[in-house]
Amino acid sequence: MNILVFGEEHIRNKITYYHDIIKRKHGCNYYYYADDRTGLSVKVENFIKAPAIKRTITGYIMFLIYIYRAIEIIREKQIDIVEIYVGINNKIIYIFECILKIFYKKIPIIHYARGEQYYYDKGKGKDETLRKIFELADLVFIKEGEEIFEKYGVRLKKTLPLCNSVPIKEDIARENAESKDNVVLYLNSFKEFRRIELLVEAFGLVKSNSIRDCKLVLVGLLDRFSEESQFYQNISQYERKILKMIDLSQHKDSISCLPFTTDPERIKQFFLNAKVFCLPSELVYCNYSLLEALSYGVPCIVTNDVDRRAEEIVSHAVNGLLAKPNPGSIADSIVKLIDSDKYYEICRAAQKTIYEKYNIERNAEIIYSMYKEITKIY
Fold first, then answer.
1. What contacts 226, CB < 8 A, 6 or more positions away?
2. What does the H/E/C string look like for 93-106?
3. Residues with pLDDT less than 50, the chain
4. What is the Cβ-side half-sphere exposure of residue 207, based on CA atoms within 13 angstroms?
5. What is the model's pLDDT at position 62?
6. DSSP string spanning 314-368?
7. Does an H or E element contain 83, and which?
8. How far apart are CA 152 and CA 131, in angstroms?
9. What is the DSSP letter of 166?
10. Listed residue (328, 174, 272) closest to 336, CA to CA
11. What is the b/e burial string over 23-47, where b = at least 16 CB atoms within 10 angstroms of the residue's CB?
12. Neighbour order of strands in the sheet with 276-279
């Protein structure tokens, strides 16, 4: 079975984790097609670089070449299934899907729904484009966004709820947790809805009032990509706001602000060094870094004022804490976790959450079973 993965600006390693398992167990072949303007796809096997599309007259020509090359891949690799990830260029995806439906009717289209609420309401007409590309799909794996489909009356043919999941780590011992440095970790891209400013303010309260040797590590700066995309320019503005806030803090020497990374060894060390992971975001459910933190046995603090499904991942006082979206509540939660006499029990509960509910091996088998089911229909 040959599968083409199409539509992202880049292909990150985490997207390929399911595929690697399915390839190893069932012999499926995956081919990845994206313009990779951020340079994040260099380590992905079978990656085919698409032409970058810019808003110029020549951009329209590149637009056509982009789609033509994708059709060439379908022919050359004898593709059986197309998997699509919504990216920035939704018009490309829509036109590509229309071509498939007209000329390649026997190739089923699978769509991954992931955080589409942040695309639907931005810009005139974008909601209608997204409606069309999801309704054309033969199967939609819903990671996030069910409420958006209901709100806009999107008619989906076939769906499967599928939360993110992560590899089960070997039983990483955290018996030495008491001797670990008091590091609070945030590892995610810097986006406004993630409300990093609340964490920075909360850290100031912790540092001033409770735990003097506490450190804050923020990983995820994307400023180096801002010249390539308006999307990253918007992120860059928010990054500058956070960096200025840190620079004005009396505790700036205890705060590390580091660039985004896909290096698995670096990511592993960040989690192993952390005592607490904090995500004060409006959108929590399905967050990959949150699941990774739990898999390493790091107790987590999240906010659930907007995303009530946060409670499905973080159980209050079991594998972490639920905080209110204000610096005082987040600071109290940090102190409670670090000072808890049940800290190691919470670490173990964090890993148990992943084993029981977000096991990537199990979800990979579910995906493969859907592959078989949908190809039989065609």
1. 232, 233, 235, 236
2. HHHHHHHHHHHCCC
3. 125, 176, 225-231
4. 18
5. 78
6. --BTTTEEEE-SSHHHHHHHHHHHHH-TTHHHHHHHHHHHHHHH-BHHHHHHHHH
7. strand 81-85
8. 8
9. B
10. 328
11. beeeebebbbbbbbbbebbeebebb
12. 255-259, 215-221, 183-187, 276-279, 300-303, 320-323
What is the tens place of the pLDDT at every residue in 70-110? Answer: 999 999 999 999 998 766 567 788 889 999 999 999 999 99
The vertex-225 CA angle with 278 and 281, nearest 5°, equals 20
Q: What is the 3-state secondary structure (H, E, C) of 15-55?
A: HHHHHHHHHHHHCCEEEEEECCCCCCCCCCCCEEECCCCCC
pTM for the model: 0.81
Listed residue (5, 20, 23) closest to 73, CA to CA: 5
Tokens of 176: 């030495």
- Of the chain, the end-to-end C-alpha distance in Å amounts to 13
Q: What pLDDT is stored for residue 214 in this prediction?
A: 96
CA 40/CA 48 separation, integer angstroms: 13
What is the strand order of the sheet 29-34 is part of?
Answer: 47-49, 29-34, 2-6, 81-85, 109-113, 139-142, 159-161
Specify the pLDDT at position 316. Answer: 95
| Six token digits for residue 121 | 């309401």
Please say whether the beta carbons of 278 and 331 come within 8 A: no
Contact status, residue 157 vs residue 138, Cβ threshold 8 Å: yes
**Cβ atoms of 45 and 51 closer than 8 Å:** no
Token pair recorded at residue 321: 């804490």
Q: What pLDDT shows up at residue 16?
A: 82
Token reading at 283? 């959108």
Q: Determine phi and psi for 34, rounding to 5 degrees.
A: -160, 165
- With tokens 């390929």, the residue in question is 16
- Kind of pairing, strands 81-85 and 2-6? parallel
